[in-house]
Amino acid sequence: MATELIWDLELIKRYDQTGPRYTSYPTALQFSDNFGVAAYHAAAADSATARRPLSLYFHIPFCARVCYYCGCNKVVTKRREHAEPYLQTLFHEIEMQSALMGHNQTVEQLHWGGGTPTFLNPTQMQALMDKTAKHFNLVSGDFGDYSIELDPREADWSTIGHLRSLGFNRISIGVQDFNPTVQQAVNRVQSEEETRDVIDAARALTFKSINIDLIYGLPFQSCASFMETVDKVIEIRPDRLSVFNYAHMPNRFMPQRRINSEDLPSPQEKLTILENTITRLLDAGYVYIGMDHFALPDDDLALAQEGGTLHRNFQGYTTHSQCDLIGMGVSSISRVGNVYAQNHANMEEYASRVNNGKLAIRRGLLMNEDDRIRSAVINQLICHFRLDIKPIEETFGIHFQDYFADALKKLSTMAADGLIRMDSQSIVVEPRGRLLIRNICMQFDVYQQVAEVQRFSRVI
């Protein structure tokens, strides 16, 4: 099976370094403040002319409480009225972005992330969806993938019913860990009952897919305690699972300074947690998609991987590779054609620009031909654990062995270690190399430099 894994501890320890997660290539570190917004306008015009389908992302940054592990762009406040001026600004941005695109472009994918999107009250949620529908061509009847991130502490059956009426058919729920001691240490006290209640509501209301997020490496976690959480999640049986490695970087993320590093599990314990989690999930029938993600065999992600159509973008793994991604809201990232563009991460600057009739784009990147070639290679490897060389050569008019001579030399060591198998026709990631896919992709990353490694999390 393409999803077979071999846990080789010696190799994992040898290759465990920091590196990008490749939700984009080039990564966001390469975005330039000198980016010309005209390039985004030109890309949007091309998208409209070609009538390419769209994926819309809306960043709702508000949280009533701070989770100490979180590194997201957020505004922590209990004052719900603070969302209103932000929504009005977001409405202006919707108008400006839609004016650049063609109304005939179908929105196949839509996602509200955060923050906590359900910080918004039902009237505000309705207004945001109505505004979106007015300016973009939304689909009905569950033909699109419309998802939202949920904090069960901010949702009940009524909330789930309202989201379903708005057109959402997928939910992603942050659990992290059910253990009360761990929850208290990271200020995320969330009962198992709250989580199950929201999932029961989603299933009763025929949501297409349920995703649960877990994090290993949090304070006071042990292999035994985390397996209790994993067993409970398996019993719940979500369609998809994400099991993330907690990256403790208090110098970058202020809330993490409230976590005592001495309370974190040791590197060896973290590896034991991951190994046992993988074993438990595979034994329960989940498919390893890659990069901490698992899915049931009949889930769209698993089917897309099997069919060779899986893609990766800023929302993670996706089945909508054909879509141009438009990110709206503070700090959001768009990819339209060969252009990346990111909004201001500062709330005041974001609002000022939009309310003065300008796109909030602060930085971005226009991909060159080399970027496009390397992006195609990395996407194939990270999504399918395999690269067929001939299609790359035909698409880009290159001789692969010559173009990637330096990368292939580096990969020869990985081949000798059993991580990959390669010849003139293909590169295949072996079962013992799949957990180290980020390392393999890094060999094709021309921007990867030692000076940047501290900006990334560890690969395991």
Automatic annotation (TrEMBL):
Monomer. Belongs to the anaerobic coproporphyrinogen-III oxidase family. Its cofactor is [4Fe-4S] cluster. Pathway: Porphyrin-containing compound metabolism; protoporphyrin-IX biosynthesis; protoporphyrinogen-IX from coproporphyrinogen-III (AdoMet route): step 1/1. It is an enzyme of class 1 (oxidoreductase). PANTHER family: COPROPORPHYRINIGEN III OXIDASE, OXYGEN-INDEPENDENT COPROPORPHYRINOGEN III OXIDASE. Its main location: cytoplasm. SMART domains: Elp3 (SM00729). Its EC number is 1.3.98.3. Binds 1 [4Fe-4S] cluster. The cluster is coordinated with 3 cysteines and an exchangeable S-adenosyl-L-methionine. It comes from the Bacteria. Keywords: 4Fe-4S, Cytoplasm, Iron, Iron-sulfur, Metal-binding, Oxidoreductase, Porphyrin biosynthesis, S-adenosyl-L-methionine. SUPFAM superfamilies: Radical SAM enzymes (SSF102114). It is found in: Cytoplasm. It catalyses: coproporphyrinogen III + 2 S-adenosyl-L-methionine = protoporphyrinogen IX + 2 5'-deoxyadenosine + 2 L-methionine + 2 CO2. This is Coproporphyrinogen-III oxidase. Residues 48-284 form the Radical SAM core domain.
